[in-house]
């Protein structure tokens, strides 16, 4: 028996590299995955690979910043057991705060807070109405500022999401709904190939870990599947460290 047999999991931003890894891991553990995003063609490619491997996958174009679209899709899925939001936040990195435009600074904060609120609320409403305990996963996690990287408003966004996650855990625990954040400290596989200084940044990320390597996409998917499963039924109001020791709790 696999970890997520009989469970329905919505993955927002499923066409991205992290979203694809998580959706693939969920499907590999027996979940029916509902892949959402704004590019149907890319979603269908991911779904095709999952089905070819024997998994169950459905796709839908959903703008995770659109309240009606999110609510209607979750209602159509109905029996939601797992929800994870992995859409991009539009953050600008590499620019010092003193040189950054206010729109670039606030965009990841506004985007992250709005989308995670909408998707978590939609999932929780379905879980409550159907008396179906489940898991809502967050990604990123708050961390101390890193001096050598100019990350703009991204860490502010992560801190805001952690506050939301803690509040949701407090309010939803009575329904058996869990909220957990996955933290990685950086996944070098997601760095664009054409990114200036990519090799140096990848080496820097790995060099800050205790294991001498960065977390992989496969690592993230495997841990996400475990956290979403009943094997982790006692885990809520928590962060899970997948950083290979780069982040010290």
Automatic annotation (TrEMBL):
One of its GO terms (molecular function) is oxidoreductase activity. InterPro entries: NAD(P)-bd_dom_sf, SDR_DHRS6-like, SDR_fam. Keywords: Oxidoreductase. It comes from the Bacteria. Gene3D superfamilies: NAD(P)-binding Rossmann-like Domain (3.40.50.720). PANTHER family: DIHYDROANTICAPSIN 7-DEHYDROGENASE (PTHR43477). Belongs to the short-chain dehydrogenases/reductases (SDR) family. This is 3-oxoacyl-ACP reductase. It comes from Amycolatopsis rifamycinica.
């Amino acid at each position: 028996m696999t970890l997520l047999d009989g469970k329905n999991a919505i993955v927002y931003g499923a066409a991205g590299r992290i979203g694809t890894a998580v959706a693939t891991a969920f499907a590999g553990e027996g979940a029916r995955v509902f892949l959402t995003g704004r590019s149907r063609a890319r979603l269908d490619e991911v779904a095709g690979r999952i089905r070819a491997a024997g998994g169950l996958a459905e796709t839908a174009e959903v703008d995770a910043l659109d309240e009606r679209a999110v609510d209607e899709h979750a209602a159509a899925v109905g029996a939601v057991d797992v929800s994870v939001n992995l859409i991009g936040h539009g953050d600008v990195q590499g620019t010092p705060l003193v040189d950054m435009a206010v729109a670039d600074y606030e965009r990841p904060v506004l985007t992250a807070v709005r989308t995670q609120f909408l998707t978590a609320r939609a999932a929780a409403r379905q879980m409550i109405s159907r008396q179906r305990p489940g898991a809502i996963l967050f990604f990123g996690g708050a961390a101390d500022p890193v001096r050598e990287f100019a990350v703009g408003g991204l860490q502010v966004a992560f801190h805001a999401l952690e506050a939301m996650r803690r509040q949701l855990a407090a309010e939803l625990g009575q329904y058996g709904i869990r909220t957990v954040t996955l933290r990685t400290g950086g996944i070098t596989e997601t760095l664009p190939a054409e990114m200036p200084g990519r090799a140096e940044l990848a080496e820097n990320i790995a060099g800050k870990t205790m294991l001498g390597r960065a977390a992989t996409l496969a690592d993230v998917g495997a841990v996400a599947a475990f956290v979403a499963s009943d094997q982790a039924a006692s885990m809520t109001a928590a962060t899970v460290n997948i950083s290979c020791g780069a982040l010290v709790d």
